[in-house]
Design a protein that fits this description.
- This protein is α/β, with parallel strands linked by helices and 365 residues long.
- The protein has 2 domains: 51-263, P-loop containing nucleotide triphosphate hydrolases (Rossmann fold, 3-Layer(aba) Sandwich); 275-348, 2-Layer Sandwich (Alpha-Beta Plaits).
- Helices cover 33% and strands 25% of the residues.
- The chain contains 13 helices and 14 strands.
- The chain has helices spanning 20-26, 29-35, 89-96, 118-123, 140-150, 155-169, 184-196, 214-227, 240-246, 264-271, 286-290, 322-331, 346-354, and strands at 49-60, 63-74, 78-82, 104-109, 112-113, 125-128, 202-206, 232-236, 249-254, 257-263, 276-282, 296-301, 309-315, 335-342.
- Helix 6 (155-169) packs antiparallel against helix 7 (184-196).
- The radius of gyration is 26 Å and the shape is elongated.
- It starts with 19 loop residues before the first helix and ends in an 11-residue tail after the last helix.
Amino acid sequence: MVLGVGDEWRIREPAITVSKYEVFQAMTEEEIQSQEPEVEVLPDDDQDYTINVKGVTKNFGALTAVDNLSFAVHKGEIAGFLGPNGSGKTTTMRMLTSYYTPDRGSISINGVDTQDNDLQTRASIGYLPENNPLYEDMLVSEYLAFVAELRGLSKSERKENLDQTVEETGLNNVYYRPIHELSKGYHQRVGLAQAILHRPSILILDEPTEGLDPNQRITIRDLIRHLGGERTVLLSTHVMQEVENTCQRVLVINQGNLLANSPVEDLLQEALELRAVHLEVEGNEIESGLATLDSISEVEPLDHEGGHKRYRITMLGDADPRADIFNLAKNRDWTLWELHEERPKLEDVFHNLTAGADEPREATN
């Protein structure tokens, strides 16, 4: 997580007063440990999860942003965290990172309750927020060294972790360049670098490919997939293709409630029920003709293309109407320009789950 820098922390000039960070550094390891509360050992069924959310609710005045939310993420799993704007995603991620405290319920990170020991749980998490705040006047090398210092890494850890992080995120060529000179793609890489620098067991990534071009998206997607080999990753994104290609599990949230929690394959199997046929045809009485076919559930007219009429046809159950459409076109002397089944997508399932929701109740996702 990028730690905020207050007025008492200075980079280029010494502070007049003793900072919180200097006090922290001056404390001995024994003193730090003596201040840490004893960690509650959770039941054995919690030990398989790195993230375990139980009945969490968060209110902002009269607004309920998250409502009795429960889910768990296994060790080493890459989980997609999806929902429309205002669904409660960002509030949930901020509670996971102890930025917010739940009003009700509990969150455990690696078996440790976040409210009992937030310093320990924060140390287990790397967080890339959506706006990816960076100090633009710094060199990449300066910024990562600063993050390592804030994280309290020893000199030996710092060198080893910096070398490994720069290699993993592909920052070698820009390591000594000012951050403000970097492209959007490299900005995201620097953000990922600060998130993994202390070798956390959990990564929480909020829209990591937002604003990137297609090539940059593929690069960051591959990087996330690589990082997930050793860590648990909770990935929030609006790009369904990234979820399909990267995640093993999908969590769908809306209006602060969990709507789905399934492996990607299961949700894609559910999408088979949303199969449709795309038809581009030229002829007379097309819609009335299609209405005579028992294998068709619904015919949705689309924009015409030239003199051709275009339709999206929903199948009835497991029936495949393409053969019936072909025979009908032949009997009625229609000209078929295109007839194919549209491949079901995770986006269709997401839309089916969240369509018709009320206006968003939360301005920050």
